[in-house]
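Please fill in the sequence for the structure shown.

STRUCTURE ENCODING:
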């Protein structure tokens, strides 16, 4: 009995029966209680149940967002919280907190969406609304399963509400089977979800979100032609466009801008973020020199090739995204010149996700309502460029998608010129992803799927003074998959551990 109770807790069977109907879909903390006999009866119950599914995204507002960049040569944490540093140093175990948290939080979301999907058909409500809400739940289930397959490979595929007797001893399904279900869910979601929302519905999953996530899943699984086709479908919707302010793309004022495809909603005081405080005061994440040196010069050349690069003034004439993303010693930020004392971990700080400007001083913002933007249009363009190049090689559409990102108003980097080989264009696209999406939590997945982590995540990482500050270690025979959390393999011996994890 103890095993069953523990399994239910870990699977995320957080009862939706305690969720009340609310005026806003974000209000998921109940004041009333329901029993199994009285819930899943009305449209308001269904709305409340779906709110509980969305609330399972809360960890992606914080720990599962830019945390993953701190596992790479892009950045590092200032301390060992969550075991992030341990993973980056190759010292993680099957009990490392970040690993256990991802497993738990994904399964929480899966348990909630399965419960919703099993009950929605019996609710008395408008059929069109039922169809849309079913699409939203399938999108969310796909999102959670995607994150499991991305880090763990195959996992038990469960498509019904949690049942301890049936599910506590299930073995792992293959990654291919789970990915197949993810794509099925996203295809079905895209067929019923609207292009856009307004008012209090902003932040819900849309058709574009389902297609963009599907394109990412296909890209990560090297299904190049399908990935390019799906990304192109998002582009052809003509719903999204690159926002004209890269520095304040992530901000409360611009939280629903033209580039946002899917985000985790935040609001004060109930659903707040601490980005301003953590990033500014705690220097987390702290960018590494390895990332900073990848930003090119305004002539489009690297710092090694450009005559504009001056080692005495290394941050002048750089790709504008460098100073939009990262704080640098000797440059203004929040009304003062940054000193080593401000960015003690690596000599660099993060600007993304903060409210501060360069020249005006404002007090420390302890709580804010930044939305964690998990999918945006620039990624879709880069997905198309990568997938199309891998599928059929360079063509004008690849250059166009790539250069749209570089031409963004306020960035205006020179175009990548035609004439590159597939291999050369591949490297240009990968570099563009690293720069454009820096500190957004995607680079770790990129080096895993590109199979470059064994090179990039092995060796010394450096601070602004080029002093070795941390050693990254990556075992290619083991670390392309995370270990199944130890307590899960104890509770369920059928969960065969990933290779070379003992």
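FILLED IN BY: designer on duty
SEQUENCE:
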């Amino acid at each position: 009995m103890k095993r069953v109770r523990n399994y239910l807790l870990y699977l995320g069977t957080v009862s939706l029966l305690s969720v009340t109907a609310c005026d806003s879909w974000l209000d998921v903390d109940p004041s009333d209680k329901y029993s199994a006999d009285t819930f899943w009866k009305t449209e308001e119950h269904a709305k409340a149940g779906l709110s509980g599914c969305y609330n399972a995204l809360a960890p992606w507002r914080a720990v599962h967002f830019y945390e993953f960049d701190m596992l790479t040569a892009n950045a590092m944490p200032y301390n060992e919280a969550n075991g992030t540093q341990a993973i980056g140093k190759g010292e993680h175990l099957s009990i490392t907190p970040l690993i256990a948290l991802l497993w738990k939080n994904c399964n929480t979301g899966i348990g909630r969406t399965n419960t919703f999907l099993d009950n929605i058909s019996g609710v008395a409500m408008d059929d069109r609304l039922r169809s849309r809400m079913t699409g939203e739940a399938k999108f969310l289930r796909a999102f959670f399963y995607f994150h499991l397959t991305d880090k763990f490979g195959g996992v038990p595929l469960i498509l019904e509400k949690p049942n301890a007797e049936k599910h506590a001893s299930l073995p792992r399904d293959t990654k291919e089977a789970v990915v197949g279900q993810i794509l099925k869910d996203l295809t079905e979601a895209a067929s019923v979800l609207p292009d856009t929302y307004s008012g209090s519905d902003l932040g819900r999953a849309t058709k574009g979100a389902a297609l963009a996530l599907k394109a990412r899943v296909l890209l990560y699984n090297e299904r190049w032609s399908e990935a390019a086709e799906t990304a192109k479908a998002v582009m052809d919707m003509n719903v999204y466009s690159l926002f004209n302010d890269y520095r304040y793309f992530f901000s409360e004022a611009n939280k629903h801008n033209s580039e946002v495809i899917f985000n985790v909603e935040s609001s004060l005081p109930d659903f707040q973020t601490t980005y301003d405080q953590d990033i500014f005061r705690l220097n987390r994440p702290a960018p590494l020199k390895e990332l900073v040196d990848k930003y090119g010069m305004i002539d489009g050349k690297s710092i090694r090739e450009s005559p504009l690069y001056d080692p005495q003034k290394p941050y002048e004439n750089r790709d504008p995204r460098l100073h939009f993303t990262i704080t640098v010693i000797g440059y203004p930020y929040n009304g003062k010149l940054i000193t080593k004392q401000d960015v003690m971990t690596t000599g660099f700080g993060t600007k993304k996700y903060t409210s501060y400007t360069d020249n005006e001083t404002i007090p420390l913002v302890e709580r804010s309502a930044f939305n964690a933007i998990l999918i945006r249009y620039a990624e879709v363009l880069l997905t198309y460029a990568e997938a199309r190049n891998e599928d059929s090689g360079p063509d004008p559409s690849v250059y166009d998608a790539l250069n749209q990102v570089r031409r963004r108003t306020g960035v205006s980097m020179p175009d990548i010129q035609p004439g590159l080989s597939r291999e050369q264009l591949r490297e240009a696209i990968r570099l563009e992803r690293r720069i454009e999406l820096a500190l957004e939590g995607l680079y770790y997945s990129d080096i895993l799927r590109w199979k470059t982590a064994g090179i990039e995540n092995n060796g010394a990482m450096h601070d602004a003074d080029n002093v070795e500050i941390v050693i990254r270690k990556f075992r290619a025979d083991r670390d392309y998959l995370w270990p199944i959390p130890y307590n899960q393999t104890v509770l369920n011996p059928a969960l065969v551990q990933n290779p070379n994890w003992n």
